[in-house]
């Protein structure tokens, strides 16, 4: 599969969080960011831009990181809506007056909204962050797609959730952010088969050139999107495990580590 990098990296060593962007989403009028691990204040092993309180980082550091992310996204930190991600398919529509703390405790892997006062976000470190945008209505969604969520159908659940609000799949722009890529995503045979069966690309997503199977989860996500008639797919590529200089990685760093934020703001 051809990976096209539509992103530009914005780096400011002083205060600004470093993020990757899709120029296609930007030119369609959507504020968004795939944040990297840089530009925050968290200490190792969460350094420095970490958005999770669940792995042991100092709450004040996460709060400041979130504030900086809000600055990039153009919304206050308390309007960045995230769920308690469980590798499932539950979708949650959010509005600017919803209590954020309550949403943070709610299980789900898809956040969607048409309210331009807020951002829909997802936290990842190897799993795929997907940002959906409907240029016609301005509605957006953020989804969390690791291999379990991908197999469970989180992509279809997202498209179905926004379709209920009148969004046509063929009009969606979907940007797939940095995730563990085929180079590092080594799995057992059974998992490889399970993931391959989840997309129309089938066994072509399994690389057998090494001792153990390596899976191209990005290609599975693309195949699923195409089956749903979503063809406007953008790759903001980069392997989270290969690049400790840019990304947090659960596989590389273990459970006690940072989590990145990817988020998108509905267009008014
Ligand atoms: Zn890699």
Number of domains: 1
Strand content: 15-25%
Residues in helix, %:
10-25%
CATH architecture: 4-Layer Sandwich
Major sheet description = 6 strands, mixed
Instruction: Supply the CATH superfamily name.
Output: CNF1/YfiH-like putative cysteine hydrolases
Write the layout of secondary structure elements.
Blueprint: E1 9-10, E2 19-20, H1 23-27, E3 32-35, H2 59-73, E4 80-81, E5 91-93, H3 100-105, E6 110-113, E7 119-124, E8 128-133, E9 140-145, H4 147-152, H5 154-163, E10 173-176, H6 189-196, E11 206-207, E12 214-215, H7 217-227, E13 232-235, H8 250-253, E14 260-264
Parallel strand pairs: 4-7, 5-6, 10-13
Antiparallel strand pairs: 1-2, 2-3, 3-14, 6-9, 7-14, 8-9, 8-10, 11-12
3D architecture notes:
The protein is of the alpha+beta class and 268 residues long. It has 8 helices and 14 strands. The chain has helices spanning 23-27, 59-73, 100-105, 147-152, 154-163, 189-196, 217-227, 250-253, and strands at 9-10, 19-20, 32-35, 80-81, 91-93, 110-113, 119-124, 128-133, 140-145, 173-176, 206-207, 214-215, 232-235, 260-264. The strands form 3 sheets. It has a 6-stranded mixed β-sheet with strand order 1-2-3-14-7-4. It starts with 8 loop residues before the first strand and ends with a strand. The structure holds zinc ion. Zinc ion is lined by residues 181, 183-184, 239, 241-242.
List keywords for this structure.
binds zinc ion, globular, six-stranded mixed β-sheet, 19% strand, 268 residues, CNF1/YfiH-like putative cysteine hydrolases, alpha+beta, 14 strands, disordered N terminus
């Amino acid at each position: 599969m051809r990976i096209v990098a539509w992103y530009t990296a914005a780096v400011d060593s002083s205060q600004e969080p470093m993020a990757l962007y899709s120029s296609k989403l930007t030119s369609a009028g959507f504020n968004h960011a795939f944040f990297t691990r840089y530009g925050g204040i968290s200490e190792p092993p969460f350094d420095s831009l970490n958005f999770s309180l669940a792995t042991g980082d100092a709450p004040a550091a996460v709060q400041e990181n979130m504030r900086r992310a809000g600055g990039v996204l153009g919304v206050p930190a308390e309007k960045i809506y995230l769920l308690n991600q469980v590798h499932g398919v539950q979708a949650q529509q959010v509005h600017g007056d919803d209590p954020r703390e309550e949403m943070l405790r709610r299980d789900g892997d898809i956040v969607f909204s048409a309210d331009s006062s807020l951002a829909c976000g997802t936290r990842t470190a190897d799993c795929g962050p997907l940002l959906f945008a409907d240029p016609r209505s301005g509605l957006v969604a953020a989804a969390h797609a690791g291999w379990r969520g991908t197999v469970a159908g989180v992509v279809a659940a997202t498209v179905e959730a926004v379709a209920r609000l009148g969004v046509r799949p063929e009009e969606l722009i979907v940007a797939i952010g940095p995730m563990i890529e085929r180079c590092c995503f080594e799995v057992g045979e059974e998992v490889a088969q399970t993931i391959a069966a989840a997309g129309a690309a089938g066994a072509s997503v399994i690389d057998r050139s090494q001792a153990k199977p390596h899976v191209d989860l990005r290609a599975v996500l693309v195949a699923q999107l195409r089956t749903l008639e979503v063809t406007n797919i953008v790759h903001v590529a980069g392997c989270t495990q290969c690049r400790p200089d840019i990304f947090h990685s659960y596989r590389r760093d273990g459970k006690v580590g940072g989590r990145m934020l990817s988020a998108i703001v509905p267009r008014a």
